[in-house]
Amino acid sequence: MEADTERARAMAPRAGGESLISFAGGMPDSGLFPIDAFRRVLNEVVRDEGAALLQYYPVGGYPPLRRYLATYLLRFGLEARAEDILIVNGSQQGFDLIARTLLDPGDAVAIEQPTYPRAMQVFRSFGAQLVPVDRDEAGPRVDLFERVLERHAPKMFYCQPSAHNPSGLTMRRDVGVRLLAVAARHQVPIVEDGFDGSLYYGQRPPGPLKALDRDGVVIYIGTFSKILFPGLRLGWLVAPAPIAERLQAAKQLADLHTSALIQAAVHRFCERKLLDRHVARVAAEYGRRRMVLLSALKRRMPEDVSWTEPHGGFSLLLTLPSGLEAAALLPRAIERGVAYTPGSAFWVDGAGERTLRLSFSSVTSAQIEEGIKRLAELIRNARRQPARRDALERVAAPLV
Amino acid sequence: MEADTERARAMAPRAGGESLISFAGGMPDSGLFPIDAFRRVLNEVVRDEGAALLQYYPVGGYPPLRRYLATYLLRFGLEARAEDILIVNGSQQGFDLIARTLLDPGDAVAIEQPTYPRAMQVFRSFGAQLVPVDRDEAGPRVDLFERVLERHAPKMFYCQPSAHNPSGLTMRRDVGVRLLAVAARHQVPIVEDGFDGSLYYGQRPPGPLKALDRDGVVIYIGTFSKILFPGLRLGWLVAPAPIAERLQAAKQLADLHTSALIQAAVHRFCERKLLDRHVARVAAEYGRRRMVLLSALKRRMPEDVSWTEPHGGFSLLLTLPSGLEAAALLPRAIERGVAYTPGSAFWVDGAGERTLRLSFSSVTSAQIEEGIKRLAELIRNARRQPARRDALERVAAPLV
Question: What is the H or E stretch that residue B193 is in?
């Protein structure tokens, strides 16, 4: 399902006169985009440096952006030299370059569960066997991680320590320290999907795993997709030296380099502190929507429904009462004017049938209130009627 | 060697006071870029459609650009529906997606020889064994092609029918027709690197192979890198239906989609006929440089030096007298203030030692005149002194 389709559906008036309220898409709200400010910096960089930015460009990236990112990452305790930062086309290309650099068909990949479906898809497309490591509220379970390393000798471990998608939880610092020690002992790289450490609610999260990485086992993936614009296709990788060289060679083979024009515009946007101002503004707005969602859930949901309390990101994970399946329930939810993402897409093994992801990033407070009212009613009613299981195939993996 | 390094070197003043004249880089001249016109359309599309263009976007591409390309390709006799055109990050990503879609490690790939080195690199990075098909003035030799298909059962055949890099020659129409028939009989896809059919000199070239493709064997790769800006990273693929779907799935895994902002700006630039005007202007200028180069070669080179007469593109292939090697001669050429790309990089098997590529796209008429004077003197002198063979490792593969 394309993000656009989801968005269009979220807006579309429905047969009954009510519009569909969609908690399905995990993208930032384009209504909050700083379009005019970005237009101005884009205009400036073309005027000032157009000839160089529109010519072929060195693969590593636009040097001022790499320097900016080195400073930006220091805020989170992550030390990287500008020349160790490789610019890529969003975190998706990061997954892809890492997979093609580290994986051969048949290799095992350990992966936090639940997790981001598109990461799974990429690793599988290179022939990897995914081995899940279940997580709890504090992060991936270290005992299970160690067992997976011993039994399956995976080539890498993928996880989202900050703003985990779908739960919105962050990894506890002591869990991170223990994961790192185990990974270092087994010499297994950890692929850290940074998602976004800047978008957090309440107390500041413990920061990226890479900031604690004394043994050079972490490959960090960062992206501007959540904090600025997904459509830029702009992200970055920070990897230990021998892997970094191979990633850069893979990037050159994949598409020579990422648009220097986009890189320069984002650099100027950041340098003027426009990104900081934007992030502060949207974090406050997303934080309000998160509060409205948590409050609505608390007031309206039956007692045997539970959910995560997100520290960051755009979504939370809700668990239905036993006997109900999120995918089977979705067609009836859409009939009643509310949509979500069934959770099974986030499980390696298709489990998580009782869970669903609610994104709060692209819905207003009024929509959240009304949407949760409809969903709560549906759940109460569904207990009295058996769910239709044949609807499963109507549900595609979420884009983001 | 990075394009930037080449460019910087071309500009750098040298010890002897003379600056280096470089025929090495195969990129368009950034001095001819229509920067201001592009800045204006970019500014407009952000203003008019910024929110949609900066959000996640459907993988296939920006629909108006796909429709424009369908019409543009019709000029060359290539019929494609807009929905059959997949937007990618330049032809390099085209190679990459095709390789990952069609190749398994150990597969044979038939490839025109000489050919574009970066295409070879990509196919090799997927574990392909490259089997050369030598070409003559008319194109790849069909008898050799057929023999390679029979003996090696390759998964595909890669060639550049229009504006072949490095020779600048175009494929003769009857050769194309026979290649297509052989490929169809053996059910082997032809990967046609379109490079650019708009940049031709003298009579109009016979057009893309894909325009003659009745059996659906051709995958066409197009790019804006030569006719507009390389730094956009913007190209497209036209493939037979079953392969097209797999290419689109591969594109989604690789990086979700190409920047819709860049696509929309280029679309508006094209729609206003600014691309047509630009191509007419640069084709005339590159045509003049080509004439100056051919004339200088004719006047100055020893009789036993030969070269191709390019119909299109940015370069020609020159063959040194027997006994001389282009790579070994390069350090002395640089000492004398002239650079070129040794030809062996364009051969699958490292042959072509006596050849070198001269690009005329980024040098002025005065530089061409002086550069060829230096090169001709060098060749005359080199016959009297043996070439230093130890210089081979100083020479990297050309970027473009």
Answer: strand B190-193
